[in-house]
Amino acid sequence: MQTRSSGLLSRRAKHRIGKLFAYLALFIIIFVVDLPLISMVGTAFKNQDAVLSTTSLFPQLGDWALQNFIDVFQKTSFGMNIVNSAIVSILATVFCVIIAAMAGYGLSRFRGKFFTGYSVLLLLMQMFPLMLLLIPMFMLYSSYGMVNNLSSLVIYYTASNLAFNIMMIRSFFDSLPRELEEAAKVDGCSGFVAFLRIIFPISLPGLITVSILTFLNSWNEYTFASLLLRKPDIQTLTVGLTKFVQQSDTNWGYLMAASTIAVLPALLFLAFAQKYLVQGLTAGAVKG
């Protein structure tokens, strides 16, 4: 009896030790992967002398300073860059979610050669690399006088995210039973009213997932923003970050502070919406 109990305790101890080593290995991996992010945040709180003279991740106790953050807002136009990014990203997200929801619902509920061809076209749109679109898009926007205009970015971000979002939200609608719409129609609802009052609220996890991906893609995009926006007062934050990197010098304190500010909205957005993101990504995985 004592041998059995000692063997059981030995297995439990081995299990706990193995679990401890697994957590330790996971912590080390996460630390190594996030080391650039940690260094960025630590450098943002250093003064200019410490930035150039120390190699530690964080400033010494008592030397933490907010001057970099204050100067970024007071001495540069980065605050306006953040506002521009927020406007463009939110508008693109709203338009993309509305259009993707209606298009995805149509592809899920209707069948025919037109809808099949449209689905194939969406897949083909994902095959074109970004660099092939730079010159044609710039010429198109230039011909319509939309260079140095935030609306050009809203249109591009909406269009560039639509194909993936439509296919994603379509798979979510495929998992919803058609009996929901049929029951609503029996109660006197039209097809659009049934979609608006029944299907749309149920599909919120999928729609939130689409909105998260669209917002992050728009918030972090740099190539087209730098191509279409030349005036400093209408540039987005990704383009605004380049003002801290000059040909002969780089203000690392300002750059790290601005980068930390730029990362915060995306992290907070993901932290609050993480539950819906997981639900939306897995909801359409199994049909029925």
The CATH H-level superfamily of the largest domain is MetI-like
Order of helices and strands: HHHHHHHHHHHHHH
- Average pLDDT level: 80
CATH-assigned fold name of the largest domain? MetI-like fold
CATH class of the largest domain: Mainly Alpha
| Proportion of strand residues | under 5%
Query: What structural class do the secondary elements suggest?
Result: mainly alpha
Note down, in words, how this protein is organized.
This protein has helices at residues 2-33, 35-44, 48-53, 67-75, 78-109, 113-125, 131-143, 150-174, 179-186, 191-202, 204-220, 223-228, 237-240, 252-283. With 288 residues, it is mainly alpha-helical. The protein has two domains: 1-33; 79-283, MetI-like fold. Helix 4 packs across helix 14 and helix 8 (150-174) runs antiparallel to helix 11. The model is unreliable at 284-288 (pLDDT under 50).
